[in-house]
Please model this.
Amino acid sequence: MTVNLARPAGKITMAFALLCLLSIPVLPLWVMAEEFTPLRIEATESAIVITHLSEIAKITAGEIESVELLPELPTTRRIAGTGMDNLRKGTFDVEGYGRGKLYLNPQKPPFLVIYTRQGFIIINGTGEVLAFLEDKIPGFSP
Model:
């Protein structure tokens, strides 16, 4: 079977095939950027902002219902997202907690379980974030 390049559908098919072939060398660059770019978790005046290549999530102080500090990460199973040795990002089943969002480096404890109306989010407990939570969440003490 051949593609008839004289017809518009043939030109579109060939252009799509060429685009797919040319994108093959770019894919490893994206995977390397995904793996080697560290996850950043910062506290602003009113929110915790999580970025990795772009902004992933923003948790405002008003959304937070409660917070739990974990010295080690429970067993997790990836549902959708990234599950590498130094990055867990996306939806995971977490033993003892159920299904929620993880945005963390599993090699850098402690971990914070932040409960919101939409569910829970587990992130790394950096000093900046702990200070934000201590200031904004009544009764929270690391």
Observations:
- The helical segments are 8-23, 26-36, 127-136.
- The CA atoms of residues 32 and 142 lie 35 Å apart.
- The mean pLDDT is 90.
